[in-house]
Amino acid sequence: MSEAETADLTSGDGQGLTLSRGIKSGGLRRVGAIDIGTNSTHLLVASVDPALRTFSIIQAEKSTTRLGERDPETGELSAAAMERGFKTLRRFLELANSHQVEQVVTAATSAVREAPNGRDFLQSIKDELGIEVDLVSGPEEARLIYLGVLSGMSFGEKPHLLLDIGGGSTELTLADSRDARALTSTRVGAVRLQRDFIKEEPLSPQRRSFLQAFIQGSLEPAVDKVLRRIKSGEKPVLVATSGTAMAIGALAAVEDDRPPLKFHGYKVSRSRLDRVVERLVVMTPAQRREMSAINDRRAEIIVPGALILQTTMKMLAVDGLVLSERALREGLIVDWMLRQGLLEDRFSSRA
To answer: How many C-beta atoms lie closer than 10 Å to residue 36's C-beta?
Structure first.
């Protein structure tokens, strides 16, 4: 990705962002961001314009590191998973340094924070690669996702529900353009459910019902929290982010005469999502891997991810969603700008 849209978080009316093309040639600062997730590790390299208070993405990379594939008896990160992580981080640091970044901000999420040897893994990263990794809490992960989504989407005057289905956890946030009203994180994710509950595929009707009930029970506290903070008369917009949501969007777009080239801002109705889920749950992993809209690794975990999305939409009683390509990794860039004093600190609320 090069010379992507520029995110301006201090636009004239103070609402959301303004998108513009290009940036000034002088006085730019470069920063890298690495998101160490349960399923994937992401790198962003951004060019920040202090005068315009904007950033543009110079390079974006992703590697499926599957840190969530932990030892089934101890729950520790496996040696193979940590080695995949090390190799990816070493390569990402080389890429970031090739752009002469002044800093690489790095965050680890669900898989690392839950593993008994997670902190040892981060200490090894510091010792061998020389970078400090921030082990973020669930609510902090949700806040960073909020910052990332807001950097690429104007909220206007409407509240938004932000749903990020990760490998190990699901973040659900209620926010507007000024503040996050509720930040939640639940220990239910696509990799976790695949690992713990799906032993045979296609799923039997009984196993599907069990998974849906488990997902609903797990998410009830988070859903109750956000619903309580929706004001009378408000109808929030549901925004879905990250790999599962983008894959569902790609599968839903197969029905379109002319599928979009990019899925940022793409809308998926609940009825269309239901049709995608019905197709997926009766397929074998081999059949899913033959689908051109998703890659092989995503095909392995798409069913539990799709069930989380479908169940959450039902619980929230919403008829559709909007996709956001921006999430936690972009949020790390925005958070860095906040800490550098390049943005007003009105986005740092924690709920």
So the answer is: 27
Q: 193 CB contacts (<8 Å, ≥6 apart)? A: 211, 214, 215, 304, 307, 308
Angle between helices 190-197 and 205-228 (to 10 degrees): 150
Q: Please report how many Cα atoms fall inside a 13 Å half-sphere around the Cα of residue 182, on the Cβ side.
A: 22
* End residue of a domain, out of 139, 171, 195: 139
Q: What is the number of structural domains in the chain?
A: 2
Residue 177 identity (one-letter amino acid): S
DSSP 244-268: HHHHHHHHHGGGSSS--S--TT-EE
Compute how many other C-beta atoms are within 10 angstroms of the C-beta atom of residue 302.
25
CATH assignment of the domain containing 254: 3.30.420.150
* 8 A C-beta contact, residue 90 and residue 129: yes
For 287, other C-beta atoms within 10 Å of its C-beta total: 14
3-class SS of residue 33:
strand
Per-residue pLDDT tens over the stretch 283-319: 999 999 999 989 999 999 999 999 999 999 999 999 9
pLDDT at 158 over 70: yes
Under 8 Å between Cβ of 126 and 333: no
The CATH number that applies at residue 33 is 3.30.420.40
CB 143 within 8 A of CB 162: no
Looking at the fold, whether 11 and 125 belong to one and the same domain comes out as yes
Does residue 133 sit in the same domain as residue 168?
A: no
* Statement to judge: residues 232 and 120 lie in one domain: no
Total-model pTM:
0.91
Nearest-angstrom CA–CA distance, 224 and 89: 38
Domain span holding position 212: 153-324
Lowest mean pLDDT among 83-87, 112-116, 127-131, 345-349: 345-349
